[in-house]
Amino acid sequence: MTWSVPNRIITVVLALLGIAYPVIVYFGLSVVSPRVILIAAITVVLLRAIMFFRAHKHCAGAIACIIALILMLAGYASDMLALRFYPVIVSATLALVFTLSLFSAMPLIERFARIQTPDLDDYGVAYTRTLTKVWIGFFVINGLIAFWTALYASIEAWTLYNGLISYVLVAVLFVGEWPVRRILKARHQRQINNHA
Fold it and tell me: What is the Cβ-side half-sphere exposure of residue 2, based on CA atoms within 13 angstroms?
């Protein structure tokens, strides 16, 4: 598939809708029923699946289809609960994807690192493996908190955590990793120099 401008725009819009999901739910509930929002959410997830499949990203497309299926099944029990469980499903899916990547030839973080540094050394490979585990831990903890907010918190608290705080925590981990990496890499380099 050619990565045309319309496809890029659609992909960005769908991604932004996913990011803004908790806020959309919060404000949407004052206008329409939970079922309407749930159907819209499932539609957006299925559209993302189609975009992934068209881009030959079959694994990502399959994951999006599974998320849509879980939302549909959860909707039979409770539209509102299904809406609130979407962030839990996303965190669980990301934790699973990162975990499965540890059993592949190249974990996800290592794949990202090799885009910038194709000839990653053994220390870099070990570091990216550890960092993959850190992200798994983050997604598990984030998913558990999202799970608690889905079951026990008010809609305001659910929106605040899943629509703001969790994204701030992602940013803190993402940005905070950079200085940690530089410090650890410098320490590793000093150890090499001392043993040389």
Answer: 3
What type of residue sits at position 129? Answer: R
Report CA torsion sign: 52, 58, 60, 64.
Answer: positive
- For the chain, 196 residues long, give each residue's pLDDT as a single digit of tens: 445 667 777 777 877 888 888 988 989 988 999 999 999 989 988 988 898 888 888 888 888 898 888 888 888 878 888 899 999 998 998 998 899 889 888 888 888 888 888 888 888 888 899 999 999 999 999 999 999 999 999 999 999 999 999 999 999 999 999 888 888 887 877 777 776 5
Place of tokens 């849509």: 68
Q: Which parts of 87-130 are beta strand (E)?
A: none
* Cα→Cα distances 52→9, 20, 48, 175, 182, Å: 14, 20, 6, 27, 34
